[in-house]
Design a protein that fits this description.
This protein is α/β, with parallel strands linked by helices and 213 residues long. Helices cover 50% and strands 13% of the residues. The two termini are 23 Å apart. Bound molecules: zinc ion (ZN).
Amino acid sequence: MMNRYLSLEGAIGAELQASLTPADAIALLKDGVKRSTTEETTQRNRSALLTDAAGGQYPYAAVLSCIDSRAPVEQIFDAASGDLFVARVAGNVASPDLIASLEYATKYAGSKAILVLGHTRCGAVKGAWAGLEDGHLTGLLGRIQPAVTATKAEVGAEDSAENLDRCSHVNVRETMGALRQESDILSGLEAEGKIAIVGGVYDVATGEVAWLD
Ligand SMILES: [Zn+2]
């Protein structure tokens, strides 16, 4: 599976996508991080990718991540055009349009895994921790409050970088739970073994991803 992926010139195709298990998709994500952190990134043929793009898309995974400029999803996973659906929203929360996007990515477009990707030094987590209320941010940051409450109960209310990063981990778990709880489509696909829902926290200082169990 990995060799077939690495030997691609253009984009991942229908046959390769269909042959992947959820575990394969997660392995591809993990291998991508290894390549990007060791500077052994793959160079695929740009014109072949564009040619293939006109014919459709068969991404192996979908990533729900934060908008943070230091967490560029395709770079983190050494991914090419056509590899990943990427849904980004401050604080990687599971709001309805984001859930819908992931339902599309998996049920209708065949992706085999959903990765909820938080990151260290997250401004949205910091804002939620401080109880920031302003404009539309109030509602968005409210979705992070369950993680803030749980983390403060565990480590106290000091807004140290360590505590805030801990909250990013908890927030990923909360988002994973919300995807399962609020989407019958996603929880159904997971129960059937057609997709896996996994979590990780990207370290903006090292480029590594800490994978949640
Ligand atoms: Zn963030």
